[in-house]
């Protein structure tokens, strides 16, 4: 009976530890490319302030070093933070996270292409359509919008021609679905208009509508 009671006590302790609520703040440092002006910095700051509990947010425009703190309880991952930066239209170069418990995580901002030719459902197709944009930040955002879809192998936008070239699995996607994904990140795509509420959050330098 004593052994059973002791075992129950140890199990209960283990469960309590595993479900303990994390406290304190995690510290983040992200080196961001493409912050050429105060408008760019404001656009990134506005996007990051959508994260619950953001504190002590700073940007060094010259170096691109962006620092901030987030509640440890939220357990924001490296991938989520990098994705949020890309959605803002900027390219994260690397990231360092110092967790509230002292653990340190580092990584780079490279996006791995997960497109696998062995998993193509239909055929590998090429497509091209017009996407409105102004600058390098727009290019990052547009290409991110397309690449966020499973089945896109390549997405390249040209500022001069305003054309987005894509290579994709036509068994998973259509050109129309890619256009909609691009519009959802704030860029009009071949007749599909980006939602005003998304477009209005873009930095001023990315406002292409006259």
């Amino acid at each position: 009976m004593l052994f059973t009671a002791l075992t129950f006590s140890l199990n209960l302790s283990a469960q309590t530890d595993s479900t303990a609520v994390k406290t304190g703040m995690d510290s983040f440092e992200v080196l961001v490319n493409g912050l050429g002006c105060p408008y760019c910095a404001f656009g990134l700051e506005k996007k990051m302030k959508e994260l619950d509990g953001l504190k002590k947010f700073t940007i060094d425009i010259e170096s691109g070093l962006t620092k901030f703190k987030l509640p440890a309880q939220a357990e924001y991952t490296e991938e989520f933070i990098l994705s949020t930066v890309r959605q803002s239209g900027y390219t994260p170069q690397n990231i360092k996270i110092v967790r509230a418990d002292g653990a340190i995580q580092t990584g780079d901002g490279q996006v791995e292409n997960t497109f696998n030719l062995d998993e193509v459902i239909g055929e590998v197709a090429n497509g091209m359509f017009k996407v409105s944009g102004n600058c390098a930040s727009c290019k990052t955002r547009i290409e991110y919008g397309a690449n966020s879809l499973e089945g896109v192998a390549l997405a390249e936008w040209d500022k001069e021609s305003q054309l987005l070239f894509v290579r994709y699995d036509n068994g998973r996607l259509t050109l129309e679905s890619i256009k909609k994904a691009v519009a959802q990140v704030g860029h009009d795509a071949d007749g599909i208009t980006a939602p005003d509420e998304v477009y209005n959050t873009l930095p001023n330098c990315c406002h292409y509508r006259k």
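Confidence is low (pLDDT under 50) at residues 2-10, 12-19. The chain is about 30% helix and 25% strand.
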